[in-house]
């Protein structure tokens, strides 16, 4: 009912013919407010089908729209957004973990999305290289990896207590940090909503930086390995 009411308010204000764009943080927030933050983060961190959702930009944009200096038709309450963000991501991650414990790698095997399988390989590499605690926290800041690491941790039988402790730590740092960063910027820059699109684009670019670095590093490995193989 709450979702329907929010959607009705938005369509009444913006026109009945417009649909909500799930890939656009501004559209999601305008339609569903803080509730949309919780739902999107739950889907992104708990369900493999949510790997494409805009978690980073959604949190930052929500923080901007909570700031007193942010104008426009959409204004959110900071306590509600912080609570919704924390609840959505913590519940989603825990759900993903238990789905992984029950379904194992079959969850990933059913998907034909190449990006999911590549992210699963990176997530497993993170767990092996950094250990459980550091990998679970770092994965929060890498798109797609934060989606697949949770069920993968369950499939690899990472201890439930260890996973829960560090997913809460990483989840709170990620959600509260990005939301408060957006809020701080919105509070210090007058009429910050005028620059919303460039700012969101910057956040998306920064969030994709870890993936770009991983791709570059993966491409350099064969090039450095070939000479050694040819000249033992």
From TrEMBL:
According to the record, the segments passing through the membrane are 29-51, 58-76, 82-100, 163-183, 195-213
Under InterPro entries, the record lists: DedA-like, VTT_dom
Report whether Transferase shows up as a keyword of the record. Answer: no
Q: Kindly give the membrane topology term recorded for this protein.
A: Multi-pass membrane protein
Localisation per UniProt entry: Cell membrane
Q: Which positions fall inside the VTT domain?
A: 53-183
Q: Name one Pfam family in it.
A: VTT_dom
Q: Does the keyword Transmembrane apply?
A: yes
Q: Which family does it belong to?
A: Belongs to the DedA family.
PANTHER family the record matches: INNER MEMBRANE PROTEIN DEDA-RELATED, TRANSMEMBRANE PROTEIN
Q: What is this protein called?
A: DedA family protein
Q: Which organism is it from?
A: Streptomyces endophytica
């Amino acid at each position: 009912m709450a979702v329907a009411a929010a959607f009705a308010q938005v369509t009444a204000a913006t026109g009945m013919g417009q649909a909500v764009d799930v890939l656009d943080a501004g559209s999601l927030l305008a339609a569903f407010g803080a509730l949309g933050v919780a739902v999107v983060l739950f889907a992104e961190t708990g369900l493999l089908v949510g790997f494409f959702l805009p978690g980073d930009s959604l949190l930052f944009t929500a923080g901007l729209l909570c700031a007193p200096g942010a104008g426009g038709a959409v204004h959110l309450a900071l306590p509600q957004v912080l609570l919704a963000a924390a609840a959505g991501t913590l519940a989603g991650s825990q759900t993903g973990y238990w789905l992984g414990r029950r379904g194992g790698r079959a969850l990933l095997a059913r998907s034909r999305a190449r990006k999911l399988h590549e992210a699963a390989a990176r997530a497993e590499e993170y767990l092996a290289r950094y250990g459980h605690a550091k990998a679970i926290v770092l994965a929060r800041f890498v798109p797609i990896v934060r989606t697949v690491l949770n069920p993968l941790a369950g499939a690899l039988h990472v201890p439930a207590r260890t996973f829960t402790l560090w997913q809460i730590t990483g989840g709170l740092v990620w959600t509260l940090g990005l939301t408060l960063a957006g809020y701080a910027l919105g509070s210090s820059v007058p009429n910050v909503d005028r620059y919303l699109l460039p700012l969101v684009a910057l956040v998306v670019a920064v969030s994709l930086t870890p993936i770009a670095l991983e791709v570059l590093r993966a491409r350099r490995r064969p090039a450095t390995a070939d000479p050694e193989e040819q000249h033992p």
